[in-house]
Task: inverse folding
């Protein structure tokens, strides 16, 4: 943490761990999701777009090595000496038989000498024991990071958004991953329908009870082509203003264990298909508002739990 950023940023964490700039390369390996195909649920989480949060990943129509090379070439122009972490982002990236996962993960770990790990986004109900054991073996070669969607700890909201797994399933998966020393990053969403500020802060506080290494905090995006988008147009629910979002995020950070690395504080701005909230388009503005207000308040990550305020 420093005068600019009053929380633990991912870039500072990577700088310290690898002594280098590290770029994540978002890839689309064409996975599906058990919450969409009927094996766990139908229709998916109500806010989920067809791309399964893969709007900023490579093109699913290209092989992974080509996706990687395209994105690497763009990043290398800006950061010629950067290291890379392939990031399987779209949908649930452990939702295939283990034999197929091996054919996807292992080439990515050796695709380039500057690849220093692998990041995999998935659901807690797509990580059977044999997969966790395999990931644990890979983790001994290069660091593996698993990103798990939680979104909220409140079961009423989880049912409303059709998340399709329980909080217990989530926490038990985190424990298993950690027993194999695999780094865990958790996604939460602020602004889910009918959640109060207090409920969102409770979700952030709950993270302190888990042995997790990172968090991604997102604002809810209500998109065309989603169930939530259709429902919202017929029966709008209250959405957060930028100032409300900023203030909730700051309270969450102040309640968050300072050892947890904050990977993200705002969703990537999506213009296409966005219904609301419109301020989410300007991610940098959102980030700057959070930073500015934290400096004004002299607020720091974890200061509420450390008793420094
Ligand atoms: S778990 Fe992820 S990919 Fe699956 S429906 Fe929910 S948001 Fe979409």
Result:
């Amino acid at each position: 943490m420093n005068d600019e950023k009053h929380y633990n940023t991912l870039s500072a964490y990577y700088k310290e761990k690898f002594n280098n700039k590290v770029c994540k390369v978002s890839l689309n390996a064409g996975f599906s999701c058990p919450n969409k195909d009927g094996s766990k649920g139908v229709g998916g989480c109500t806010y989920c777009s067809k791309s399964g949060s893969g709007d900023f990943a490579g093109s699913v129509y290209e092989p992974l090595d080509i996706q990687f090379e395209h994105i690497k070439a763009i990043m290398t122009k800006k950061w010629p000496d950067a290291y890379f972490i392939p990031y399987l982002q779209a949908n649930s990236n452990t939702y295939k038989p283990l034999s197929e996962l091996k054919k996807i993960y292992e080439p990515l770990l050796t695709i380039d000498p500057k690849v220093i790990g692998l990041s995999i986004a998935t659901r807690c109900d797509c990580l059977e024991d044999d997969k966790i054991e395999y990931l644990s073996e890979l983790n001994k070669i290069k660091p593996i990071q698993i990103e798990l969607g939680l979104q909220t700890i409140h079961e009423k909201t989880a049912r409303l958004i059709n998340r399709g797994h329980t909080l217990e399933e989530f926490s038990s998966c985190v424990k298993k991953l950690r027993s194999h020393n695999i780094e865990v990053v958790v996604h939460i969403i602020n602004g889910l329908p009918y959640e109060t500020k207090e409920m969102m802060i409770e979700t952030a506080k709950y993270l302190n009870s888990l042995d997790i290494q990172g968090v991604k905090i997102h604002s809810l995006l209500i998109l065309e082509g989603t169930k939530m988008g259709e429902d919202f147009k017929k029966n709008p629910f209250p959405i957060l203003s930028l100032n409300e979002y900023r203030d909730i995020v700051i309270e969450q950070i102040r309640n968050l264990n300072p050892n947890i690395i904050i990977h993200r504080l705002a969703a990537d701005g999506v213009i296409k298909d966005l219904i609301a909230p419109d301020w989410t388009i300007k991610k940098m503005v959102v980030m700057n508002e959070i930073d500015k207000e934290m400096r004004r308040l002299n607020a720091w990550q974890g200061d509420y739990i450390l008793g420094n305020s």
Observations:
- The longest strand covers residues 144-151.
- The mean pLDDT is 94.
